[in-house]
Amino acid sequence: xxxxxxxxxxxxxxxxxxxxxxxxxxxxxxxxxxxxxxxxxxxxxxxxxxxxxxxxxxxxxxxxxxxxxxxxxxxxxxxxxxxxxxxxxxxxxxxxxxxxxxxxxxxxxxxxxxxxxxxxxxxxxxxxxxxxxxxxxxxxxxxxxxxxxxxxxxxxxxxxxxxxxxxxxxxxxxxxxxxxxxxxxxxxxxxxxxxxxxx
Length: 199
Description:
Layout: H1 8-22, E1 25-29, E2 36-38, H2 39-56, H3 63-72, H4 77-80, H5 94-108, H6 113-123, H7 128-147, H8 151-155, H9 160-171, H10 175-189
Helix pairs in contact: 2-3, 3-7, 7-9, 7-10
């Protein structure tokens, strides 16, 4: 019988890392439920959405790369935690915390070099697929809040202009996602009741 280089202890340790990632609660409410999404739910949703949009929009991206980037894009948050894009104070030192977290993951899982390399390619926006997922990651929370009738925006007293100033430049790295964002922006102009502050 063929022997494989698998180790149950290693599998259990990696499962614990995934559970840490699942325990990271984001600022966005899950539409229709009285809970906020976690990083694992968000990453899976992003992976499926990227795959679907690539097919439905006939974008021609490498689906395997899209799915990989989406699944690993928040991996460092297993140790660094999540910070809202609009939390200026909380974002101070975020890059350093995530770099340290990624180094810790790399040290704990030396056989995960392919996964760590993918994180680095994503973080440097090394290709069209990385830029697409990066931009889509900025758009998806807005879509989620829209689907929840603006709950997060109202509770956090957020207006559209602040969100736009923060996210639009990041979304601009991908033309297909920018086009989706413009469609959403035009929809939101007619839904000021979704926001908790002046647009």
